[in-house]
Give the backbone structure.
Amino acid sequence: MTERRLFISFEGIDGSGKSTQARRLAETLRAQGHDVVLTREPGGSPGAEEIRRLVLEGEPDRWSAETEILLFTAARRDHLEKTIRPALDAGRIVITDRFADSTRMYQGITRGDLRGTVDDLHRMMIGVEPDLTFIVDMDPALGLQRALSRNGTEERFESFGEDLQTRMRAGFLALAAENPGRCIVVDGTRAIEDVAAEIASLTEARLR
Ligand code: ADP
Ligand code: TYD
């Protein structure tokens, strides 16, 4: 099959089903013969995974909002250099579970209005956007219930609670409205199979 480079991100609040859907899409595309790299943020390269541990584990108040923006951006830069760009240059499809929209929402709106800082730093240090972003939309109460039921050590952000998730959901929907060429909102409250089928057909349309 002729390779076609495509950079896809999954975004949405915690527990919306991003990881599940990113994995499903990778499996579907691989079954069709595509060469797919499935990755995630924060992380996705050895250096960025080290930064992930710094930001997601330990004391929630460990970093100021500004330091956190720098750490997430540093992780993204390494991910881009070591994983994303080489894969796209080799003609592979890259699917990432979260990318810059997560920083725009989490660091941009949750601890004061820092969206301008996030965007400035993105322009300076990252400078690329996915070709396609699936925003998995989800009722925050259900998302939080699903996220907490996973019970991992990375509860730092999920412990922020439902109010914050509600603001973030509105933020993701606004972001989708601002970027209609790149972002597609999918209803994540449906069965896994139904969400996956919609995402697969939207992606296949882009690949044609
Ligand atoms: P996220 O990556 O957005 O935090 P996950 O994909 O990890 O979300 O899903 C969170 C939890 O909800 C997991 O336990 C997963 O199995 C479950 N889940 C995901 N999608 C659905 C769905 N459509 N219906 C029911 N449960 C789901
Ligand atoms: P993730 O492992 O995707 O969590 P979940 O599966 O619960 O969605 O991401 C971990 C947390 O990191 C999540 O709460 C969102 C947060 N995060 C940021 O605050 N800023 C960022 O730039 C990124 C990529 C993630």
Observations:
- The pocket of thymidine-5'-diphosphate (ligand 2) is lined by residues 14-15, 18-19, 41-42, 56, 72, 97-98, 102-103, 106-107, 147, 154, 157-158 (CB under 6 Å).
